[in-house]
Amino acid sequence: AQALIGEPKIVVVDEPTTGLDPEERIRFRNLLAEMSQKDIIIILSTHIVGDISSTCNNMALLNEGGVVFNESPDKLIEKAKGHVWQINAIDSELDAIKEKFPVISTVPSEKGWEVQVVADKLDGFPGKKIDPNLEHAYVYFMEYELGQSLNGEMN
């Protein structure tokens, strides 16, 4: 609150919603959105994807000290279209999937697991393409556009 006294032109917030309950997180995101409508530049440093996708109209990804992406979240998501898959797997397939692909999520299902991965193609595994979200897009960008392995499973 003190940072807003004097109507600053730029506000820097570092991990602002970490530790907040869901209601306070929403309230803070709404505050950031209101501030952005008043021509205040907000620099948001966060690892919480929901904070980015709900408050930012432009984002920058930094890697090894340099900016590697500087566009809208939607542009990053667009890059991942056609590269996000859902595989319905059984227990015995999980290790092979984790070794072969960056895994975004593994959720129990009636028949085993619903596993979301990013990949150009699914060699040897049946799956279906799904629409990417910002988290999928980040992993796709880091793995396939920058060539930086995120070491398998994310979740």
Describe the structure.
- By secondary structure, the protein is α+β, with helices and mostly antiparallel strands.
- It has two domains: 2-56, P-loop containing nucleotide triphosphate hydrolases (Rossmann fold, 3-Layer(aba) Sandwich), CATH 3.40.50.300; 78-145.
- It is 32% helix and 28% strand.
- It is built from five helices and eight strands.
- Strand 3 (59-63) and strand 4 (66-71) form a beta hairpin.
- The longest helix has 15 residues, at 22-36.
- 20% of the residues are buried.
- The model has no long low-confidence stretch (mean pLDDT 87).
Question: How far is it from the N-terminal to the C-terminal residue, by CA?
Answer: 34 Å
Strand order of the largest sheet: 6-7-5-8
The number of distinct helices, counting runs of at least 4 residues, comes to 5
Q: What would you report as the Rg, rounded to the nearest angstrom? A: 18 Å
Structural class: alpha+beta
| Overall outline | elongated
The total tally of domains equals 2
**Overall strand count:** 8
Strand content: 25-35%
Largest sheet: number of strands, sense, barrel closure: 4 strands, antiparallel
Q: If you average the pLDDT, what whole number results?
A: 87
Task: Pick out the low-confidence regions.
Answer: none
